[in-house]
Amino acid sequence: MITSNRFLLVGSLIFGLSGVARAETLSAQVDRYAHPTLGKDAVTVANVTLQVGHIKVTLAKGVVAPVLAGTETIGFFFDGEGKWTYASDTPEEWPVMRHDADRATRWKARDEGKSLLVSDAFDDLLWLAPGEKVPAGTAGAAPPEHAFRKHLETFARRKSDGVAQRLAYRERMAPAAPFSWVELSGGKQEAIWFRDEIESHAEDLIALKKLEFDSANAPWEWAVETISDQPIGRGFREPPRPDVVLTRVEPEIEAEKEHAKIRVTETWESAAKEPISTLHVNLRSRVFADSALDIRKNELLKVETSDGHAVDFDHRDGRLLLALPKPLAPGQPVTLRFDMEGDVLPPPSHDSYWLLGFDSWYPSPGLNGSAFTWRCTVRVRKPFVPIASGTVVSRKEEKDWNTLTTELDHPIFLPVVLGGSYHVEDVVKDGRTYHVASYAYVNHRATEHLVTLSSQIIKFYEPFLGPFPWKEFTIVEINSYGFGIAPPATMFITREAFSPHEDDLTKMFSRSLTARFAHEIAHQWWGHQIKWPDDEEEWMSESFAEYCSALQVRAEKGNGAYNQVVRDWEGRMKDSGISATLPTANRLEGETAFRDRMGLLYGRGPFLLAILHKELGEEKFLTFLKTFQSNRKWQTGSSALTASLLHYLTGKSYADFFDRYFWGTEYPKLPK
Ligand SMILES: [Zn+2]
Questions:
Q1: What does the pLDDT average to over 66-93?
Q2: Ligand 1 centroid from CA 520, angstroms
Q3: How many Cα atoms are found within 13 Å in the side-chain-facing hemisphere of 380?
Q4: CA of 476 to the centre of ligand 1 (A)
Q5: Which of 171, 203, 231 is at the close of a domain?
Q6: CA 490 to chain centre
Q7: 286 inside domain
Q8: How far apart are CA 432 and CA 471, in angstroms?
Q9: Which of 80, 146, 256, 605 is the most exposed, having the fewest neighbouring CB atoms within 10 Å of its CB?
Q10: How far apart are the CA of 508 and the centre of ligand 1, in A?
Q11: Rounded average pLDDT over 521-544
Q12: Cα-to-chain-centroid distance, residue 317
C-alpha cells in the first residue's frame, strides 16, 4: 500500500485545507474525524495483503469502501473475511507480552524466528491512514453502510484517548507524516493496532475488553489493554523525551460541597526542535462518584493566554487539544489560563472530604514532561478545612470560608489538594514545620507521635540521602486501613497511624506502621527529589523507597529483621515468576496482575538493591545512594544512570547484571 501515493495525496490535502482552516474551530476539526462517513465507491476485493510496520493484514474476500472526514479520504472500511498477524521484535517486552496475550486475552502468543507473534481473524476492519491509497478491487459493490455504523458504535465505547484528536493533531503538526490506526472486529478479540510517528512515536497492539461497571444499569465500555508497545526512533531502554514540559502550575480552587470552580494558570516550555502550534495533553472529562450511574462532568469553560486572548481548544475523552495563538519556538515558554467547573468533588466512600489527586484534574502532559513549581490557593466553605501540598504561605478565615495558599519552588509532579472534616495542627521540630491533619477528631497525641516518628526517620535518612527536600511536611489521615501514599512534601497515611488501638484492624495494621512510614518518607527523595521518567522506570521510586525503609528496619530492629525482609523480597520475586520484567511490571494484565506487579516493584526491585548492597559493602553502597541523590537532584533517574554510577564507583561493569535481572527475568542470588 502505502507509500506510493502518499506525497501526492498529502500535497492535495494541504492545498485543500488552506481555505477552510481559518474558519474551522478545533472542535469542528476533531468532529470531522470523530464522525467519518462511508464513500460510495465500494469495490470487491480478494486476497489483498497490507503490511505496515509490524502488522500484516490479509483481506481474504469482502467489500472495501473509502472512509471520509468531510470531503477528504482518510482510510477505508472492509467488511468480509480477513486475518492479521502482528510481530514484536522487541525482546524486552516479550515476557509481559506473552503473559498478557495468554492470560488476559483469547489470543496466544507464539515464537517464530526472532519475533513474538499474535494472530487473529476479523470480519470487519476500519483502517485510518490519511494520505494513503485505498486498496483497489472490482467496482460496483454496495457500500457496507450497516456494518460501518455498527463498527463505529462498537468502538465508540472506548472512552479514552480518541483517534479523532490524534488525527487533528497530526493535521496541524505534521500533515505529511505517516500515521496508521486500525480497528479490528469479529475475531477472538476486538483489537486496535496503531503506528504513530508524530506524537507517541510508537507502534502498539491493544486488546479491548468489556468493562462491566458495578451497576448493571450502566452502559458498558471498553477497557484498553496494551499487549505490545514498540518505540519508534529510540530504544526500548531509553525513556522518551517530551516535546513540551509543564514548568509552572498555579491553581485557584473554590469548593462548595461537591461543586468546584477551578482556575489553573500553567506555563509550558517547548523542548522540541521545531516550533509547536498545538498541545495535546491530559485533562479528565469526567469523575466517577459512587457508581458508573453517577458520573460528573469536568467542564472546561475557557482557555486564555496570560494577556487575555481566547485560545481555541477541544476537550473530550480525557484529552485536551489546544491551538496555541502563535507557534511556540524551541526553548520558549507560554502561559495559559484554564477555567473549569463541575460537581467534581464527590466524597470517597461517603467520607467527609474530597480529594484532587492523581487523575489529571489540571491540564497535564503525564509524568514524562511534568516538572513544575507550584502555588495553590484553595478556598472551601466551612466547616471543611483545606489542605494542599507545599509550604504554607497563608491561612485565612473569613465568614463562611477557609482559605489556604501553599507553594513549592522545586520542580514537582503529582501534587494534591483536599478539603474535608480535618483538624490541622502545626508543630515545629528540629527546624522543620509539620502540618498534621487528623480526620474528624482533634488528636494531639497522634500528632505528637507522628511528628516524632517522621523526624526520627528523616534524621536516619539524611546522612546517606542528603538533606530532606522540604522545609515543611504535611501528614494527612485517610479514613481507611493499611496504606500510605506520598505526594510531594505530603504523606497520606491510614487510620492506624492516628489511632493504633481503636479496633482490631488498626491494631493489626499498626504493627507494620514504622516501615510503611519509612517507605513513604523515603519517597520524598526517591520519587520527588529524583523523579521517574516513565512507567518502565517506576522502580526508581518504589524499589528504592522500599529498600531505604528496610535500612530503617535494620537500624531499629537489627540484622535479623533486615535479613527477614530481604528473604521476603526474594520470595515475592519468585511468586511473581517470570510473568514480566521489572521495567514492564506496569503492563501486567489479567487476574494476577496486581500481585505480580507487587512482586516486581516491591520484591525483585529492592532485592536487586540488597544484592548490590552486599556486593559493594556498607560504605560504598551508601555513597552510591548519596551520590545518586546529589547528582540527579530535581531531575529524573533511570536504570541506565544507576548502572553507569555503579560502574564509576566500582570500576566494574553492571551491564550484564541489568541485562539479566532488570531487563530480563532471571532470578538473581544474594552473594554469600
Ligand atoms: Zn511507595
A1: 98
A2: 6
A3: 24
A4: 16
A5: 231
A6: 20
A7: no
A8: 6
A9: 146
A10: 20
A11: 97
A12: 15
As to burial, measured by CB atoms within 10 angstroms (0-12 exposed, 13-18 middle, 19+ buried), residue 568 is middle
Q: Average of pLDDT values for 247-257?
A: 98
Distance 250 CA to ligand 1 centre (A): 26
pLDDT digits (tens, 9 = 90+) for 444-464: 999 999 999 999 999 999 999
Please indicate, yes or no, if residue 610 is contained in any of the structural domains: yes
In a domain, 254, yes or no: no
Residue range 481-501: average pLDDT?
Answer: 93
Q: What CATH code is carried by the domain that includes residue 567? A: 1.10.390.10
Domain boundary among 167, 200, 231: 231
Question: Is the predicted pLDDT of residue 430 greater than 60, yes or no?
Answer: yes
Q: Which cell goes with 429?
A: 521540630
Using the mean position of ligand 1's atoms as its centre, give its distance from the Cα of residue 538 in Å: 10
Ligand 1 centre and the CA of 47: distance in Å?
52
Q: Which of 12-21, 22-31, 498-507 has the lowest mean pLDDT?
A: 12-21
Q: Measured in angstroms, how far is the CA atom of residue 514 from the centroid of ligand 1?
A: 14
Closest CA to 388 of 350, 437, 338: 437
Instruction: Give the tens place of pLDDT for each residue, 164-186.
Output: 999 999 999 999 999 999 999 99
pLDDT of 22 over the 80 cut: no
* Number of neighbouring beta carbons within 10 Å of residue 141: 17
- Residue 572: Cβ-neighbour burial (10 angstroms; 0-12, 13-18, 19+): buried
Its domain, for residue 605, covers 530-662
CA distance 28 to 35: 10
Residue 523 Cα to ligand 1 midpoint, Å, equals: 7
C-alpha of residue 521 to centroid of ligand 1, in Å: 9
Q: How many domains does the chain have?
A: 2
- Is the pLDDT at 497 greater than 50, yes or no? yes
Taking the centre of ligand 1 as the mean of its atom positions, its distance from the CA of residue 413, in whole angstroms, is 15
